[in-house]
Amino acid sequence: MQITVKTRKQQEIIDITREVKKIVEKSKIKEGLCMVYARHATCAIIINENYDPAVCEDILNTLNKLIPLHANYKHDKIDNNAHAHIKAAILGPSEIIPISEGKLQLGRWQGIALTEFDGPREREVIVEIVSK
């Protein structure tokens, strides 16, 4: 299955937990794994707190301090988005979540999110469910 996410900002974190849960429910798989994968080189998939929006701001602010938008990157000569590639490479394109009794085994405050570093864009997220 696929989720399409339309981002609105150059950098943002978008909670996709609800959409992933719907796919898991539709699958009717009771025990297994859910893989969430972004098909892009300048965004990533993370699992983190989805209750307090300040967490997302803190993540983006910290990444921007560590990997500034423009720091004389060689790739910026091509399309001016080297920072986005670096951030996405560090966070990674996918996450795997166990499924038990038909439900994602996320912690109380955990959610699944797409992290956008080169938007706004339309992003494709693949969700694969594997049965035990």
Estimated share of beta-strand residues = 35-45%
Shape: elongated
CATH topology: Jelly Rolls
Rounded mean pLDDT score: 96
Q: Kindly report the name of the CATH homologous superfamily.
A: YjbQ-like
Question: Numbering strands along the chain, what is their spatial order in the largest sheet?
Answer: 1-8-3-5-6
Helical stretch tally? 4
The H-and-E topology, N to C, reads as EEHEEHHHEEEE
Structural class: alpha+beta
Question: Which bin fits the share of residues in helices?
Answer: 25-40%
| Rg calc | 16 Å
**Total tally of structural domains:** 1
Task: Summarize this structure briefly.
This protein is α+β, with helices and mostly antiparallel strands. It has one domain (2-131): Sandwich (Jelly Rolls).
What does this structure look like?
The chain is of the alpha+beta class and about 130 residues long. It is built from four helices and eight strands. The chain has a single domain (about 1-130), classed as Jelly Rolls, CATH 2.60.120. Strands 1-8-3-5-6 form a five-stranded antiparallel β-sheet, with helices on one face. Strands 2-7-4 form a three-stranded antiparallel β-sheet, sandwiched between helices. A hairpin with a 2-residue loop joins strand 5 and strand 6. The radius of gyration is 16 Å and the shape is elongated. The model has no long low-confidence stretch (mean pLDDT about 95).
